[in-house]
Amino acid sequence: MFMLISSIALLIGMIGVFYCGRSFDLSRLPGLLREKCSPGAALCGAGKAFFVILMIAMLIRMAAVPLHTWILDVHDEAPSPISMMLAALIQTTAAYGIFRIAYPLFPHAAGSLWRVLALLGVGNILYGALCTIRQAELKRLAAVCIDPADGFRVARGSHGDTRRRSRGQHS
User: Fold this and answer.
1) Burial code of 1-22, b = ≥16 C-beta within 10 A, e = fewer?
2) Are 95 and 66 spatial neighbours (Cβ–Cβ below 8 Å)?
3) What separation, in Å, do the N-terminal and C-terminal C-alpha atoms of the chain show?
4) Disulfide check for 83: which of 3, 48, 78, 159 has CB 3.0–4.6 Å away?
5) Number of domains in the chain
């Protein structure tokens, strides 16, 4: 169910990116969207909405704290090699999507929502650390150990110079 919601949100977000920029070319889109979705521009609200939709899609796939309940069940039911692949591919690819798609395309929205993202990251770190202490099963331990690493990724993404983000420059 969570992956279906994530897929639909990702589809809506990418349709929104195309609606705002009229292109899927990731080398041209940041410049196009910077003009159309900057504060005071006609599509400023749409840019922020599409950023939030993309972040929800990626945070579900990343299994961030409020959207994480699906991950333990999937790891329990999957064979061990598939469980490790799930942790390595789906969750890490979601982090890549945040840093390669969501932040560069909507830097103003990312700059204005950095506190929320920082709280999600710190919450993910703390929750994952506390759950790791209690786990006895190896597969559940592998599932829960990924959460703090993803929390560090989200927290790092929320941190930074918002002036550089608004110009489309990222560290």
Assistant:
1) ebeeebeebbebbbebbeebbe
2) no
3) 35
4) 78
5) 1
The rounded distance, in Å, linking the Cα atoms of 135 and 143 is 10
- pTM for the structure as a whole: 0.83
How far is the C-alpha of 168 from the C-alpha of 171, rounded, in Å? 10
Q: Is residue 171 part of a domain?
A: no
51 token code pair: 């950023």
**CA–CA gap between residue 101 and residue 77 (Å, rounded):** 31
Domain limits at 131?
A: 2-166
pLDDT in tens, 11-65: 999 999 998 888 888 889 888 888 888 888 878 888 899 999 999 999 999 888 8
Cα–Cα dist 146/158, whole Å: 19
Is residue 140 within 8 Å of 76, Cβ to Cβ?
yes
Alpha helices by DSSP H, 38-113: 44-62, 69-77, 80-85, 91-97, 103-105, 107-112
Q: Is residue 97 part of a domain?
A: yes
